[in-house]
């Protein structure tokens, strides 16, 4: 029921035809602080008309969400955004139907 409700959210309905689920992401970068690696699986990518990823979606099933959890999830999505050079993601809470946009730059 929660999945059906989530897939019916207005923001998600528009993206559904463009979604690709569970895409592995691996990247590394070097800065003054040292080397940083990112490895994970993006829950879903939305592809643009030419087939390039344009948006990251991270589905969460938390029943009660704390501000700390939201910030941690935002950091996770930002790491994926940086690794893929995509500008925007969506943090989607399946239980509540809440959708939080996340930008690559803070």
Distance between the termini: 34 Å
- Helical coverage, percent range: 25-40%
- What is the average of the pLDDT values? 91
- What is the approximate shape? globular
Count of helical segments? 3
Let me know the largest β-sheet: 5 strands, mixed
Structural class: alpha+beta
How many beta-strand elements?
5
- What spatial order of strands do you see in the largest sheet? 1-2-3-4-5
- As a percent range, the share of strand residues is 35-45%
SSE order, as H and E?
Answer: HHEEEHEE
Radius of gyration using CA atoms only:
14 Å
Low-confidence residue ranges: none
Give a summary of the structure in a few sentences:
This protein has 3 helices and 5 strands. The protein has helices at 2-7, 10-15, 67-84; strands spanning 19-31, 34-47, 53-60, 88-93, 98-103.
Description:
The protein is an alpha+beta fold. The protein has three helices and five strands; from the N terminus they run ααβββαββ. It has helices spanning 2-7, 10-15, 67-84; strands at residues 19-31, 34-47, 53-60, 88-93, 98-103. It has a five-stranded mixed β-sheet with strand order 1-2-3-4-5, with helices on one face. β3, α3 (67-84) and β4 form a beta-alpha-beta unit. The radius of gyration is 14 Å and the shape is globular. The termini are far apart.
